[in-house]
Amino acid sequence: MLAIDVKDLRKQFSVQKNREGLGGALKDLFKREYNEITAVKDISFSIPQGEICGYIGENGAGKSTTIKMLTGILVPTSGHIQVNGFVPFKEREKFVNGIGVVFGQRSQLWWDIGVIESFQLLRKVYRVPEAEFKQRLNELVERLQLGELLNRPVRKLSLGQRMRCELVASLLHNPSILFLDEPTIGLDIVVKTEIRDFLKKINREQGTTILLTTHDLQDIEALCTRVIMLDDGRIIYDGGLDELKSRWSKGREIQFQFGEQPDVHTLKKLTEDLQGVSWSVASDLTATMFLPHEINVSDALSRVVGGAADIRDIKIMETNTDEIVREIYKSGSASQEAADKLSSYTPADKSQESIEGKDGQAAADAKAGEKEPVQS
Ligand SMILES: Nc1ncnc2c1ncn2[C@@H]1O[C@H](COP(=O)(O)OP(=O)(O)OP(=O)(O)O)[C@@H](O)[C@H]1O
Q: Residues in domain ABC transporter (predicted)?
């Protein structure tokens, strides 16, 4: 069975227009006018059980609105949703027992009472038998190291401590699907890593399906094999993260550090029969080779190592996912055609602030005094 199945899902909001000034306010009293905002525009996707899927997009893309419809908080304007076999907004009571939700910006815990009392209240809400609750709580408390926090009021917890408690709260009734809306927002890298490790574990051990929205692409890299990308209420990409990276990154960069100033013409000569390989000199002692995906790294490396003198260090640069996703948001499409339009983009261009740039050789010539790009 699919954990989540969404077809042609749409959500429109009517927002009241506020006319300017006193006159406008008076007019508003007698005749209200509304704007229609379509936050989610006929999207379809399905998520099998046990998958961790990232749901990303710029501010206002429609992520939270989707999560709210999937969790039964909002009623869709049109389309179909099934989560765990239920229509979320119709069969609320049965449905909520199978899902856990964490909104990073909002708390499901009671602010003034001890954490353990909030957990006890949630046990009653979800009707979890006492023995089962105790066993589960002990397990979660141990994993997330919450022991000494249980008797503190929630308002006295740090953000990281609270977020770990929120995760426990969302899992006390052993849901098979977990919805996480910005679970790592504002957290330091240590707590982020703890939370990511914890999520990976519960997914691996219990097969929990996770739908995760985040602006932190490291969350996506650490947890998700699949990513759904939203732009202005529409899905612009649904697939593997690796596939997205290889479609959008045009190749790899290898940075060489030399003992003496490299001669770019010699470097260029070494790789001249490798199509698409280019060189740029970043500083007196470093040069960067850009390789298209089709060129084998060891092939290119062996030529340089065999021919260039005094190499002190070699660094193979990772594709920067943030940069790729930013480019996709900018173009509004993650399609192959959009990626191809950026064919002049290479990591080497970026590190050189587009010496060659999209305008070609003219820009390169203009900057030739500072940095010298050489195309094989
Ligand atoms: N209750 C509401 N009434 C009117 N408009 C709304 C409401 N909720 C969301 N919107 C609008 O719907 C669009 C999508 O909002 P949504 O909160 O789903 O985006 P998001 O992708 O979660 O953004 P963010 O990353 O900033 O949280 C926005 O234009 C927002 O202003």
A: 24-257
Residue nearest to atom 11 of ligand 1 (CA): 39
Q: Are residues 107 and 201 in the same domain?
A: yes
CATH number for the domain spanning 41: value is 3.40.50.300
Residue 348 buriedness (CB in 10 A; 0-12 / 13-18 / 19+): buried
* 252 CB near ligand 1 (under 6 Å): no
Atom 3 in ligand 1: residue holding the nearest Cα? 13
Is residue 60 lining ligand 1, measured as CB closer than 6 Å?
yes
Ligand 1 centroid from CA 213, angstroms: 13
CA of 349 to the centre of ligand 1 (A): 35
Residue to substitute in 34, 37, 69, 230 for testing ligand 1 pocket (most ligand atoms within 8 angstroms of CB): 37
Q: Which two tokens stand for residue 59?
A: 């501010």
pLDDT digit string (tens) for 202-236? 999 999 999 999 988 889 989 998 999 999 999 99
Residue in 204, 235, 169, 208 with CA at minimum distance from that of residue 6: 235
pLDDT digits (tens, 9 = 90+) for 297-321: 888 888 888 886 688 999 887 667 7
Specify whether 282 is located in the same domain as 219.
no
The DSSP-derived string for 291-339 is EETTS-HHHHHHHHHHHSS-EEEEEEEPP-HHHHHHHHHHHT--SHHHH
Whether the CA torsion 238, 242, 245, 250 is positive or negative: it is negative
| Residue owning the nearest CA to atom 30 of ligand 1 | 60
Residue nearest to atom 24 of ligand 1 (CA): 59
- Chosen domain end from 176, 210, 244: 244
